[in-house]
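FAQ: What does a ligand-bound record look like?

Like this one, built around calcium ion:
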Amino acid sequence: MNILIVEDEEKIARNVCAGLEESGHEAVIADNGNEGLAKALSGDFDLVLLDVMLPGRDGLSVLKALREDGNAVPVILLTALSEGAQRVEGLELGADDYVTKPYFIDELLARINAVTRRNSVLHAGPLMLNLVTREARYGDEKIFFAPREFRLLEYLMRSPGKVFTRSQLLKYVWGYGFDPQTSLVKVCVRRIREKIDRDGDSFIQTVRNTGYRFNAEAGRCQARSN
Ligand code: CA
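The answer part, i.e. the structure of the complex:
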């Protein structure tokens, strides 16, 4: 996994980074909140380890901004023993777990594995995406998605009902530097629909003049009628 460590204490950050790399992960360090948020929003990471007390923008504010942007990347908070109130607030803001400092790298790895397992399969009726094996199924049928189709569908499925603009999707799936007028998103959505929409509602609904949202009910209706 590609893990982002947002931690301003250099020694801790480097220790965690080394521990993660020894376990086969890739890790990148951001030493302040603003850089952490920008990196987390890039969509390049499978998980974020987020310190609470950070220069620039604190960890809770980073988490809040991430979730407000519709970004559902798993987040584990790194908190001090005395930061009980921040832990509660962090979980309410959408953190997946927390680890109290000082911690053992083995404990951190165990938490990372647990959070990853919890977040590794997305379901909507007959539709299933396994984010670890990158396998997709509709009922018993295996569906083959191109990497960007998989990523776009994953992003929408993580937040059913939430409307994402074309530029948000463009930024998340293709990265920065694309003309917002490009039809990449539209073409990708069409390809996904061709693969997963049976008769009935579409899993990906177009929201006029805005963007798209994932319709988990489409799957449920189809599952019932099958
Ligand atoms: Ca700190």
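Follow-up question: can I read anything off the structure? Yes, for example: Residues 105-118 form the longest helix (14 residues).
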